[in-house]
Amino acid sequence: MDETAVLLWGVVFGSIGFGFFIYGKKQKAVVPLFVGVALSLLPYFITNVYALVAAGLVLMVIPYYVSI
């Protein structure tokens, strides 16, 4: 069951990361661009479901508080 949850959360965070990446690229904003790349690559490195969700949520919040 853990593998299925990691796969589904990986698809969710990858899709959100793709959205952040496209937004950052079009707006020429560095923070959303790098957060999008990080969210897309995150499921490849974290295999624990709870750590994946926690790291994904933290990464998704970063563009709202950090602006360069």
Report the sheet-strand fraction: under 5%
* Number of helices in the DSSP assignment: 3
Shape: elongated
Whole-angstrom Rg: 12 Å
- Per DSSP E runs of 2 or more residues, the count of β-strands stands at 0
* Unreliable stretches: none
Protein model, in words:
The protein has one domain (2-65). It is built from three helices and no strands. The chain has helices at 2-27, 30-45, 49-65. Helix 1 packs antiparallel against helix 2 and helix 1 (2-27) packs parallel to helix 3 (49-65). The termini are far apart. The model has no long low-confidence stretch (mean pLDDT 93).
Characteristics of this structure?
mainly alpha; 0% strand; 68 residues
What's this entry about, in short?
The chain is mainly alpha-helical and 68 residues long. It contains three helices and no strands. The longest helix is centred in the N-terminal third of the chain and has 26 residues.
